[in-house]
Design brief:
It contains 21 helices and 12 strands. By secondary structure, it is an alpha+beta fold.
Length: 577
């Protein structure tokens, strides 16, 4: 009965999905390592793993009320080896168990087999019986399969109509008409915000109204008034209880969404929201020597700023900064992005174009760092018009292709090395697979390299397979990837010298165009041909000019920056399926 209760609780109880700095002065916690699992086998003990995060309220609470409880420690003493994992520092382990939230508790048998997986906070009242029941009956709990079997590698540009309609229907049904927002929990989901903004730009009046409601409420409730930091989640359906947890991905999501929304809707509240998040990144999370700190925690325990420097979080900050720069023209943001990328290349670069997570990676390199860095490098090329960043983006993409692609399925695995010998099946995390597909697809447009497009299509083949479509209902990120694969990016090229202010004004207008799927280039003929010389731009005797193009058509030369948005809006960009 208790084991049944454990299963039900694991599937239904929700602690906050995050962790906390931990005090291990008494040596209670061991590290995740081969040596720990070897010791468990030798001593015939269970390994009980607690995955936590710096900014997680319920991780602090569970450390204080449960892990430190004398009764719990008495049960653990002779039969268990407690292992603490900071999930921010180990993307490979984090992404394997992220569905179980933070804190997540995983119990392994002495032979390394997974037995029990527990979601969120457990008080001693519920935790102790589970430990006792595991000792008495160490058979694995059978959890529902979250998806179907992986299929063989296939190239795809999108979903079937039925699949697309099912995802759209799920998103529509998730809308909270009473309070606004998608679902009762108000989570800052970057792809959802960008997808809704894109739909609004494409003329979807319903999503335009919805995204404006959400962004207005987020600006009022989710941006911390003291720091300008973006909360990752609001715990109440009516937006009345922000969690005071500020991971970097939420800062990127908020900054990018508000920056583009300001261009689209002209609402000064959106510009103010973007300015506040930008100020938080600049003043609080930017490290003095370059790069960005990982997060801020202000909930239970008030851990403050997590001053560890990861390539992934630095790249996310850069992406947000560049979206802000593209929309506002604030040069300080662009220079902060450039300096942070140069820091990452000096301090996190690997041979072959890749990046490590931290100063040392125990089981890396990880896909997350590399795909976020490749995305940021490509964005930096677009925002600056400088070719060096495209070369670095290509190198990072080549590293990803050589290190993380599963040739059997076309999907991207989390880590280039196994996280532990007893966990033999490589995992593929959905969000990073979406980011990789979108990055490779856009890179193919900038470079003209068909192999990048094929990598994107193979990745899309994985995203349209049962492990994704059967396991998840809410998939705006997959819809984004599909839209970008099935449609050419908006393409605008400024032909003119980079030291000519007229060229710079035209390029600023091109960058401000708010669609994400955008190829903006600055061709100063003194630098030689563009990487993808797929358009033969005519000479224009009266000075710099902009050309809005598709694969088959280019506009007349545009010399007035104010005319660029209308030219891009008029392009017919649809690819054939």
């Amino acid at each position: 009965m208790i084991r049944i209760l454990a299963t039900v609780l694991a599937l239904t109880l929700a602690g906050a999905a995050r962790a906390a700095p931990v005090d291990n002065a008494d040596g209670f916690w061991s590290e995740w390592s081969e040596a720990t699992f070897a010791r468990a086998a030798r001593e015939q003990k269970f390994v009980i793993v607690s995955l936590q995060s710096w900014w997680c309220r319920w991780c602090h609470v569970m450390n204080r009320e449960t892990w430190a409880n004398p009764e719990v420690r008495g049960i653990l003493k002779d039969k268990f080896i407690p292992v603490y994992v900071d999930q921010d520092s180990r993307p490979d382990i984090s992404q394997r168990y992220e569905r179980w939230g933070w804190p997540a508790t995983i119990i392994f048998g002495p032979d390394g087999a997974e037995l029990v997986k527990l979601r969120g906070f457990y008080s001693p009242q519920f935790f102790s019986p589970i430990l006792t029941a595991t000792i008495e009956d160490p058979s694995p709990v059978v959890y529902p399969d979250a998806g179907g079997a992986e299929r063989e590698r296939t190239l795809a540009t999108g979903l079937t109509e039925a699949q697309r309609n099912e995802i759209l229907g799920f998103i529509d049904q998730a809308w909270d008409e009473s309070n606004a927002g998608w679902s009762k929990s108000k989570f800052v989901d970057g792809p959802m915000l960008i997808w809704a903004l894109q739909r609004a730009r494409q003329g979807d009046a319903s999503n335009a109204a919805r995204i404006r409601k959400v962004l207005t409420l987020m600006a009022e409730t989710m941006i911390d008034k003291a720091t300008g930091a973006m909360n990752q989640v609001n715990l109440k359906p009516d937006w009345s209880e922000p969690a005071r947890e500020f991971p970097m991905f939420a800062q990127e999501a908020g900054l990018a969404a508000y920056s583009r929304a300001w261009i689209m809707f002209g609402d000064p509240a959106y510009r103010q929201a973007a300015d506040r998040i930008y100020g938080f990144l600049r003043d609080t999370l930017a490290a003095p020597g370059g790069g960005f700190y990982a997060s801020l925690g202000m909930s239970e325990g008030e851990p403050g700023v997590d001053r560890r420097l990861y390539a992934r979080e630095t790249a996310q900050a850069v992406a947000g900064l560049l979206a802000y720069y593209d929309a506002t023209g604030v040069a300080e943001a662009r220079e902060l992005a450039v300096g942070s990328v140069r820091w990452a290349m000096a301090n996190r670069a690997l041979p072959g174009g890749g990046f490590r997570h931290a100063e040392q990676d125990k089981a890396g390199p990880y896909l997350a760092d590399n795909v976020e860095m490749a995305k940021a490098l490509l964005a930096l090329h677009r925002s600056t018009g400088e070719r060096e960043w495209l070369a670095h983006a290509r190198a990072a993409a080549d590293f990803i292709a050589n290190s993380f692609i599963d040739p059997a399925t076309g999907g991207f695995v989390v880590s280039a090395a196994p996280d532990a010998s007893q966990l033999t099946k490589p995992i593929k995390q959905r969000e990073d697979n979406v980011t990789a597909v979108r990055m490779f697809n856009l890179l193919s447009s900038y470079t003209g390299a068909n192999r990048y497009r094929e990598i994107a299509e193979a990745g899309m083949g994985y995203l349209t397979s049962p492990p994704i479509l059967d396991a998840y209902g809410f998939l705006p990120d997959v819809l984004l990837a599909e839209d970008e694969l099935r449609n050419e990016p908006v393409h605008v090229t400024i032909v003119g010298a980079k030291d000519d202010p007229r060229s710079a004004a035209l390029y600023r207008a091109a960058l401000a165009y708010p669609l994400v799927n955008k190829r903006a280039e600055w061709w100063d003929k003194r630098e030689g041909n563009l990487a993808n010389a797929d358009v033969d731009y005519p000479g224009f005797p009266d000075g710099p000019a902009a050309f809005a193009c598709t694969s088959t058509f280019c506009s007349f030369p545009v010399t007035d920056p104010a005319e660029i948005p209308a030219q891009l809006d008029s392009l017919k960009r649809a690819r054939k399926p």
